[in-house]
Write a structure and sequence with these properties.
Blueprint: E1 17-21, H1 39-44, E2 49-51, E3 55-70, E4 80-94, H2 99-105, E5 113-115, E6 123-125, E7 139-146, E8 157-168, E9 184-191, E10 200-206
Antiparallel strand pairs: 1-2, 1-7, 3-4, 4-9, 5-6, 7-8, 8-9, 8-10
């Protein structure tokens, strides 16, 4: 094979669509893929997933390993490193300042949100202080973005990011400003599931439109 500088189709640029499930996904909790349908459409047609709508600043998936050190007398640097911890986080910003998105950002239970804003009584989210021993709310997350840098194939090749157990852990600010849109910046801590001890998975796939 002759030398090439690289493959520009492997340079991926573009935002992902963000979906939330109000339960822990687990390794078998994802809807089945369809050979003739984008996974965005599959999730949109699932009653178990909700599209959060517009997001800002994309999606950041961060892996933070922690290593221990073994020092010995004969060398000044460490003689060995060993992995002793791991953290994975997912960060985005919800640009649609709905109460449904705020509920997820604050890791509140679904029961904290009642009513609908289209009714005269309105939609209400109770800002509860919590209680001793209250369990944190874990949710599943699936994001679907471009899987190639080729503009001709970008609509038919996609990358799926699935997080089995996601827990909102960072500060959330609710604002109303004259010169800035209201949005919720949220950081999710990902936890491994019990069955496979994995945080989730990333899938690159293609689909074909039926003629």
């Amino acid at each position: 094979m002759p030398y090439t500088r690289g493959n520009n189709q492997n340079i991926i640029v573009g935002a992902a669509s963000f979906f939330i499930a109000n339960y822990i996904l687990g390794s078998g909790g994802l809807p089945a893929q369809s050979a003739n349908t984008s996974y965005r459409e599959v999730l949109s047609n699932s009653a178990n997933f909700r599209n959060v709508g517009y997001t800002m600043n994309g999606l950041d998936l961060t892996f933070t390993p922690n290593f221990g050190e073994v020092s010995v007398d004969q060398i000044l640097d460490v003689a060995k490193l060993y992995k002793q911890g791991m953290q994975v986080s997912l960060k985005t910003a919800f640009a649609e300042a709905t109460l449904e998105n705020l509920l997820v950002s604050l890791a509140y239970k679904s029961s904290a949100l009642t009513g609908t804003k289209l009714s005269s009584a309105g939609q209400t989210m109770v800002l509860g202080a919590g209680d001793i021993g209250e369990c944190p709310v874990e949710r599943g997350i699936v994001a679907v973005g471009p899987g190639t840098g080729d503009c001709d194939d970008s609509n038919h090749i996609e990358r799926i990011y699935a997080a089995y157990r996601a827990l909102s852990i960072d500060n959330v600010t609710v604002s109303a400003k004259r010169d800035a849109a209201s949005m919720f910046e949220v950081t999710f801590r990902l936890l491994p599931d019990d069955e496979t001890a994995s945080y989730g998975k990333i899938i690159d796939r293609s689909w074909t439109i039926l003629s």
